[in-house]
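#onboarding

Welcome to the new folks! Below is a worked example of what a typical request in this channel looks like: someone posts a single protein sequence, and someone else replies with the predicted structure as tokens. Don't worry about understanding the tokens yet, we'll cover that in week two.

Example request:
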Amino acid sequence: MKYPTFFIFLLINVLTSFAQTTPTDRPADPPTDRSKFYLFLLAGQSNMAGRGDVAEQSDVPNPRILALNRNDEWVIAKDPLHWDKPSVAGVGPGISFANEMLKDLPDDVVIGLIPAACGGSPIRVWQKGEYWSQTDSYPYDDAVKRITVALRSGILKGILWHQGSSDSKIVAQYPFLLQQLADALRTEFNSPNIPFISGEIGRFRANREGINYAFHNAKYIIPVYDAVSSEGLTHIGDSAHFNTMSQHILGKRYAEKMKQLLAADVNRIVYPARACPAVVKAGNHITILYNNLLNCDIDSVFIESDYYRASLSVEAVKKGSFEYDAFTKAAVNTSIEVVIPPDVPEDLYDLKIRCGGEINISAKAVKILKEYRNPFVFIHISDPHISRQWVGTPDNGYAKELELLDRFTETANIINPEFIIVTGDIIHDYTRFDADSTGWGGNVRSGYYNRPLAEQKYNNYFYGSHGYKGIYAFNSPVFSIAGNHDFYGPDNDAYRFKAAQWNSLMGMRVYGFSYGNTRVLCSDDYLGDPVTDIPMSGLQGKVLTSYLSTAGHGALRIMAQHRHDRVDTAFMDANRISLVLNGHSHTPSESYLGSTPTLNIRPGTVCRSGEIAAWQKTLGFFRIFTVTDSAFSYSPPLRFCQNPTAAYNDIVNNLTVTFERNNNGSSISNAATLTNNLDVDLPACRIRFVMPYKKEGYKISDGEIFQSFNSPPNTIIDVTVSLKAHTSKTVEMN
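Example response:
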């Protein structure tokens, strides 16, 4: 039978149109080895389902990318992947995501996409038993069923989520709802480390900013999570849905972020770490808080410094929920009790845990002592504001404040305090580019979209950058307290997210620690909720009171916080706090408060930019405290250098050590000259000599050998030297 030409043409068009608006039906078998079949859930609403024009899709179907069709059959993936609304289904980010992922995967790995998005669905219907009428479906339940089917053939590797256009009016609650969804899916499949990635809604939408901020806020309450940007993406003409090209770009961005999360070290040491290291005597035990998201066995725990390494005896490993922030409810799932060997030399060590084929590191986390000293010395600094002023490009620059902080580490390491306390404003909630000579002017940036990000700021603080040292260059443990500028991205009144960001990047926010018979209480008077969290009658008071109850009240109690004029005198009096260390105002000051009475003191600022005009009153200062039993004394504000406004190479420190020869173990003898131009005597300066290994030992001309240990091919000798104010002394080692 013959058909008219126009009829054949019409039939072809109909068939072509049908093929473009229905899921692909080319059957395919997944790999026989489940471990080679990587599954990814595609969930959310219409922009995940895809509304891009299929006619603009140029990708050739890839046999290494399969999709689960509506009949729960594996087929070669082809847009449209979804059928939530067949008349408008089109190109989404799924296939471009998969193609990008395959670029870095072995040739025998196949990707399986699990389409589950439902156009228009608000996040409230992504819960068990909730029905969505627009797609006649139960979004959460259907997704779970489809994942269950897919898991017969492969391994769930990640979740992609694009939703939020329907929820722009609940931005404050949205991150918590997203957290509930992530927790529910992870719990459903016993996969606590499955990466969960969300995508910003189009920045072309008028109401996009709040919900997009919510995606980024969620980073601080959802582990193994991140959000991808929609910057530069365009729509199909409706100001709602990404066009085909933008979907391709979005898919690649999802893939880039997924690769980062899959490669990331998802096991994390929370204590001792970052804001709160540990000071412990050799031979004693320490309890480690560890987020073992892989749920794998602990292979070993050890400590390591530049010259010594020691394995720690693991006494107990407990699994459960171990909360470390009462306000944010931040918790880890593993507690590890270890014992420090009695013969470990005194030093500041990295803590390392080998688990699941990975080594997780908490840098400069454990200070080992032979004995607690009495008297002992500690240093107080405040308000470094690392990254308030940025030098260079956002992606490849450094915090201007590091130039002074770097030079201060040299001074502090000679003084050799038992610990250092930094009372807040560790980083800054905005960044100033191209500032003038006084540290002002230029361009000010803030928010999630502008680098340097919070992670970069804190990394500058700890590790330094561009050759300038951060606080990990101190030979003493550093305890960091939160201040009003210690967040980047969340809104100023987004208390839960500011506090959770601190948890995510710094660890403990409210804690106590002991040195011998001294108790130090570290609080946060800015990031947490001002009603329920910050007052000592609230959550923080309970945490710190509990610490004192467990550790004992000791002979001397010190409070460290940020703001000098927001002190809870009732708590101070009840616990007989003798000393409050704070900052916030950059002018050194001291006063008394309460009926104890309590000394309320601040040192000035050691390295903040923007203080050039008032530098003589505020900049370059620190204080030394000496504690003896229940009593303490303190220095006046000390300036560590002669002129803190000078260029880095022109800064002249007021306390220096100069070695006659390279102090690297290459010389059989050496000499070190100490010069103290500070206004205080220093009874226990510390010099470390790195000498060639010598069996019969070394002798010194002045000072006292505190400890000596072999670290072949070197012998390490720590020498204590007493040095009067405005004097010099040379110590010879041979």
